[in-house]
Design goal:
0% strand
Amino acid sequence: WDGRLKNVVSMIRSGQFGNPVDFEPVLNSIENGNDRYLLAHDFASYVDCQAKVDEAYKDKEKWAKKCIMAVSGMGFFSTDRTIQEYADVIWNCKPVPRPDPRA
């Protein structure tokens, strides 16, 4: 484990973020080798990447440009289009008509 993750787990267990019992399912899954979401595996790279984000955010002009570029590049993405593509290409299913809620 990354030392930073050990520190976070210790802080959680100390009650710093609320009742430690609330976090037991997550902590137990990580500590007992059932980390199916790979939280422990990805933690170091996540924290390292977040540090880069924090650094980039300091330059407000560049950050604004990055945000505008990201938003302008999202035009093709839509959940409706994505779900339709999955239905057509992956699931090979047809839509079912929705009943009229007023009927």
